[in-house]
Write a structure and sequence with these properties.
Layout lengths: L1 E6 L2 E6 L2 E3 H7 L2 E7 L6 E10 L2 E12 L6 E7 L8 E9 L4 E10 L1
Length: 111
């Protein structure tokens, strides 16, 4: 899920579908929080790939997934690369080191 930030692995000010540009400008950042289910014994590097209107704005390496946890593996990233125009359709892809897409967040920043 997308949010303003993440504190103690809890998203703060969750974005359900969209958020106004003025709010994002006030926050100065956006966060992506993802849960990954992985089989026991798996240890795989992943990253969040942030894009606005299909153009990549940030690639953020994350701690490697450690599989086998009953609650899954949770991680997040924060981007401050929010140069105007901020409004648009955002995606945050969760991608393995080999390029496999394992998750995707979608939300919009409205004018």
């Amino acid at each position: 899920m997308a949010a303003r930030t993440v504190t103690d692995l809890t998203p703060v000010d969750v974005i359900h579908e969209s958020v106004p540009t003025a709010t994002v400008e006030e926050w100065g950042q956006l966060a992506a929080y993802t849960a990954v289910n992985a089989p026991g014994g798996l240890k795989q590097a992943i990253e969040h790939v942030w894009a606005r209107n299909g153009v990549v704005i940030a690639r953020i390496p994350l701690s490697p997934v450690s599989g086998g946890r009953a609650d899954g593996f949770r991680t997040y990233s924060v981007t401050r690369r929010l140069t105007p125009p901020i409004a648009g359709r955002y995606t945050v892809d969760v991608v393995t080191a080999s390029g496999q897409l394992i998750g995707r967040l979608r939300f919009a920043v409205t004018p």
